[in-house]
Amino acid sequence: MVIQVDLKFKICRGSSVRRILVREANAYSATHIIVGSSQGLHITRPCISVARYCAKKLPKDCWVFAVDNGKIVFKREGSAATRSDLKGFSTNFPCSVL
C-alpha cells in the first residue's frame, strides 16, 4: 500500500503557535494535524496542550494527534466522513516518518 503525502512548508508570523496552526489548518482545509516536539526537547505537556487547543478550535472532521517519542499521547478522531480516508491506516506509526 502506497500513501502519498503532500507536505507544505510556509513561514508564518504571529504571537501564538496554537493560533497559527489552527489558522493554517483552516486555510488549507486540513483533515489531519500531527504535532510533536523535536527529539532534543522532551517536553510532553506543551505538545499535548497544542493538540488539545487544535482539537477544540478545529472542525470535528479534522483528526488531531500529539506524538511524543513515537507514541501517540493525544488523539481526537475525526467524524465518520473522514474515517473512510484512513481505511487501512495504522495509528501505530513510527515517529521517524514525521
Quaternary structure classification: single chain
Could you describe the largest sheet, including whether it forms a barrel? 3 strands, mixed
Shape: globular
Q: Outline the low-pLDDT stretches.
A: 91-98
Write down the overall mean pLDDT.
79
Q: Give the tally of β-strands.
A: 3
By DSSP (H or I, 4+ residues per run), the number of helices equals: 3
The share of residues in helices is 25-40%
- As laid out across the biggest beta sheet, the strand order is 1-2-3
End-to-end span in angstroms?
18 Å
- Taken in chain order, the helices and strands follow as HEHEEH
Class inferred from helices and paired strands: alpha+beta
Radius of gyration using CA atoms only = 13 Å
Percentage of residues in DSSP E strands? 15-25%
Model description:
There is one protein chain. The chain is of the alpha+beta class and 98 residues long. It contains three helices and three strands. The chain has helices at 17-27, 44-57, 80-83; strands spanning 32-36, 63-68, 71-76. It has a three-stranded mixed sheet, covered by helices on one side. A hairpin with a 2-residue loop joins β2 (63-68) and β3. It is globular, with a radius of gyration of 13 Å. Residues 91-98 have low confidence and may be disordered.
What order do the helices and strands come in, and which of them pair?
Elements: H1 17-27, E1 32-36, H2 44-57, E2 63-68, E3 71-76, H3 80-83
Parallel strand pairs: 1-2
Antiparallel strand pairs: 2-3
List its salient traits.
single chain; 98 residues; alpha+beta; three-stranded mixed β-sheet
